[in-house]
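quick one, 539 residues, struct below
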Amino acid sequence: MPSHSNSTRPEILAPAGNADMLCAAVFAGADAVYLGLQNFNARRTAGNFTTEGLRQAVAFCHARDVRVYVTLNTTLYPGELTALAEAVAGIAAAGADAVITQDLAVAALVRRMAPGLALHGSTQMSVQSLDGARRLAALGFTRVILARELTLSEIAGITAGCGIETETFVHGALCMSVSGQCYMSAFLGGRSGNRGGCAGPCRLPFDASGTPGPAAGHHLSLKDMSVIGHLPQLSAAGVASVKIEGRLRPPEYVAAAVNACLLARAGEPYDTRLLQDVFSRSGFTDSYLTGARNGSMFGTRTEGDAAAAKAAAPRLRELYRRERPRVGVGLELTLEEDGAKLAVRDADGNRAVVYGERQPQPGQKPPEEARAAYRRSLEKMGGTPFFPQEVAVRGAQWFLPGSEVNELRRRALESLLAKREQPRPIPCAKVPQALLEAPARAAKQEGYAVRLAHAAQLPRETPQDAAWFIMPLAQWRDVPPELRSRTWLEAPRALFGGAERLRRAPRSRAGTRALRAMWRKISLSLPRWRACRWREASG
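---
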């Protein structure tokens, strides 16, 4: 009998944009799902879940040994803390397994209200380095969802040294920007991706060739990633969870991706063509993971792609038409002259007992033959999340019709499932309302800030209304002393392996002191500029 345990690593994590996708992901065999509430959710246009819907979803999943992670992964605005606290209370009451977040204010509130809720650092946090992952570990996160742009060796290095679980995307859409750092939709249409409203403008015709004419290219549109074939290497690297993107896709999509991951994790081949048919942009790319970044990464959704998806849908529905058995149970049937009793139990200590309505009669078959027949009836659990681990029959000298045995099994498993669906809320504390009120706005500074790429661009005669200059971190030595009190230094938007090693290079004592002073300035300036950018993006 194949293993039904979901403890195999890495965990297969599937999207659940609505109830239909949730069922498809679970029935197809996902170990965990991630989903969002109506608010604070980076896929605001998905179906999503109400607080009551979340409670039902968690009950459904936990009854089947499937974990549930809730996305609170948008940036937070002043005045939203009260609504956020209500959302955290609802998640804790439902008994979800973790919260996915990118905003440290969200993480701090979760830790204060419900410390029993695990924290997962969203890919929107743009964690591309070992230092970034370690910082999340120090802040109490138990898992970091790494940026999509990392290579396999970079993932392995972070996983080996960060001290918490790592999660990587293996299938789904790629952003044209570094994870979590795209402001294109906010700039062009006022719909911020970091607020859950990305309109996907990078999928529109943008031509970088400079050739005029109607046949414009789509030079910002990346193909979807698919690195499911590399799952054995990710597993060997110690990755705890492999994630499928796509909460806006149909149930057939999630079922196909989960099935492919299951096969790849078991070392078996999977149907890459079927996976491409369900959704692709003229194929897939693995260029980020392999480090082979080139023009083959770009692609668009064509009419042929859409036709292939329509044709593949009926076949894909078979992947989630029936329950996948994943919860082992023990059964004990006791037959006596006064009646029949069936007891079932699971590994979590849940137990259900049902009694027959018909009185057993003296049997006509030898006890061993009758016992084998009873076992065959009890082991028929198709259409349920259960599979038999142990089956015991006592009193096989008594006869009970097969229909009665089947009815006992059905009632017992339904009762056990109902017990497994009982909510297991996480303790949650209230916070004083004063802490949830929006802080007073700081007085607006006079003048404006000028962002420059090189120190050579600094004006010889500084305009009086230029309050600040913003310079890249690498230019810190070249800023004139008289302008340093008015200059903010910006860290790089992304820090991948090579750049990180440069930061760790040996330095002189004086250079180290200067660098520490520079980092102190950065730590003060960057949060203010993040807030400024997000206010601008919100219009």
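Residues 1-7, 501-507, 521-539 have pLDDT under 50 and may be disordered.
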